Every structure is written in C-alpha cells, then in structure tokens.
Fold 4-hydroxy-3-methylbut-2-en-1-yl diphosphate synthase (flavodoxin).
Amino acid sequence: MTHSSPHQFGPAPRRSTRQVSIGGIQVGGSAPVVVQSMTNTDTADVASTTKQVAELWRAGSELVRITVNNAESAAAVPRIVDKLAMMGIAVPLIGDFHYNGHTLLANEPACAEALAKYRINPGNVGFGKKRDTQFAQLIEFAIQYSKPVRIGANWGSLDQSLAAMLMDENALRAEPWDAGRVMREALIRSALDSAHRAVEIGLPADRIVLSAKVSGVQELVAVYRDLATRSDFALHLGLTEAGIGSKGIVASSAALAVLMQEGIGDTIRISLTPEPGASRTQEVIVAQELLQTMGLRAFTPMVTACPGCGRTTSEFFQELAGVVQNHVRAKMPEWKISHPGAENMTLAVMGCIVNGPGESRHANIGISLPGTGETPAAPVFVDGEKTVTLRGDNIAHEFVALIDEYVDRRYRAGRPD
C-alpha cells in the first residue's frame, strides 16, 4: 500500500474513483469532501425535526441523516421534506434504517421516494435466514426508487455469524492473527461483502457509499487504510461514539486527519455527544474547521489569534478574537451569495508586539493590540501593509467595520476586475 510521503506538502490524491450523487450533492472521486450530520430529534415530531435539520443546514451541513425507526417516523419524512422546501431548504435527507427498514419502505412509499439516500447497517438488517432476504429487499427498494445507499458496518453491531466464521478460519492459520485483527477483518468484510451483494442484486456500484466505524482512533485508521486498498467505493468517515466536548473533537480530528491526509475519505461526520442544552450544530462546525485547517475546503474566514502570555494582561484581544470569529461566521450565509470567495479570507487578532505585526502582515486583515507596557495603539495591516492605527474604546467596532469594507471591496459579486 502507498502512503503519502512525510515530505509531501498537502494531502495525497483521493483514492476513491467512484462518484455518487446524493440529492444533487456529489460524493467521491474528484468532488470535495462533504460534511454531514445527524439529527437527535424524534423524527415523528415533524416540527422539531424540521427545525433541527434547518439549523444543521444553516450551519453548513450538506447532508443530514435522520432516524427512521417506526411507522410514525416513516410517515413524517415526506412532511419534513415539504416543510423544508417551503423554507427554501433543499438539503438531502438520509434515512437511517435498522431491523425493520424493509417493512417501513414497503408500507410508506412516499418516505422511500422523499429520502435522498438509505443507510443500511449489515449487522442490524436482520438475523439468521431473514438477514439476506431483508437486505435484498432494502437494495431492491433503492433500485426501484433510484436511491444511493450507504452500507455502514459498525463495531458495536457486528455481524456475529461472520465474526464467528472468521474466528474459525483464523484458528486454522499456521500463524493465527490476534483477535483485534480478526475483528477488524470482520468489519471490513461485512461492508465489502454487502456491497458486492448489492451490486449482484442490481444496484449500480456508483450508488454505493461504504463505512466501517469503530470508536478507537488507531483502529479506525487501520480499518480504513485496509478498506481503501480493497475497494474503490466512496467512503464515509467517522469515529463512532466519539464522546463529549474536547475528547470527542480531539479523537475525531486525530483519526480523520490522518486518513484524509492519505487521500482516504469522501464524506465525514463528527459524532459528538452534545453538552446538555448545547446546539447540535457543533459537530458541523468541527467538521468544517477540520477540513479548512487541513486546506481541503474553505467555509468561513479563519482567525489566527495568539494564546496570550505575561505580556498580554488585558483580556481584550481574547474578546476581540471571539467577536471577529462570530461576526464572520454569522455573515457567511450572506457573503456566500453576495461575496463569493470571502470564505478564503484570513484574519489575525494578536495581543502584543512580539508576533503581532508579523502575523498581522501574513493575514488579509490583521490587528496587533497593545500588550503590557506598550503604547496604547493598535496598528491594522491589510494585505501586508499597515493602513491605520486604532485607539480608544471603540476598537472592536472599528475593526469589524474594516473587515466588512474589505470584504465588500475585494469579494463583492460583479465587482470590476
């Protein structure tokens, strides 16, 4: 297997060659890595689910998965799609099916039609003799309604009969694998065998996305490296049950960054456990920031800010950095339409003279605030040149105004070249 060279600048070329269309969003091949998320509402509650899907879409989620686990939720799906359309939101919805998906799609054809993609877990599609039949029924619905499918194997719901078979095969090896490798193989085989079975039934290979999720960083990297060498299907990346707060963010970023740097992965989700009362949109923001800091995509202007030290006794630079980041993120939905390219802008908010002027010159717009014992003046740099010095109590408002003026001057749609 070939990995990117440690001396190579930027991620390796993408490995998947198949491109899948999901409600008009292209995944795989030469398409950009796509951000997706999942609701945690009761799908049968049309109002709350529509509201959360809209929030995730506004935050930048390009695909949204919803749970379809009973007749009520299946019946609600077309109503959710209609309400979103009335709001001008055309985000593709993915139906997450376990155990009874074949029945729900049979009984609710409007749901089968309204969804942009079906997600099937081969470990939870059925048990015993029913497993193969019910899997085939799901694939046949996908064929009937011309829908793509994500075949998503998961460490927590592994096909136990497949795992047992591979354990038996391993016992016969001259040099048996360790148990962890056998379980990883079972996860990969579950996804690949199911994908090949779907193709045999008649689902085109360019309508299949694969995933094989685990909750450990090193295990996820090992699984997807192997999966990427054994297929050319589009791959969905995600660390399942990543956790809450910084743990979930760090673990997901550590695993996904390694894989995407090697050219593995076509769509990602950051599976964070939200803090009580926190917005579900955090997982979207983390996914965007991961892609943007890796140089794979641009979503919103990024703010460089120093961490602070003994030279920065004032908290004002921290407050200003937060104001600036929140301002540009809030403006991006408007700028995306009226000022295309503004998402590539770089900003700097620095707290003292040590690195402040240098970092500010590197940004499109930067400000170097006075540190301890420094002259109470804040020089502003625009495209490397000092343009103005701000003083007084209104620096935050004036700096934000300068950012808006710069965006309008440089990125306004239809401006003269």
User: Anything to note?
Assistant: The domain at 302-409 is CATH 3.30.413.10 (Sulfite Reductase Hemoprotein; domain 1). The chain is about 45% helix and 15% strand.
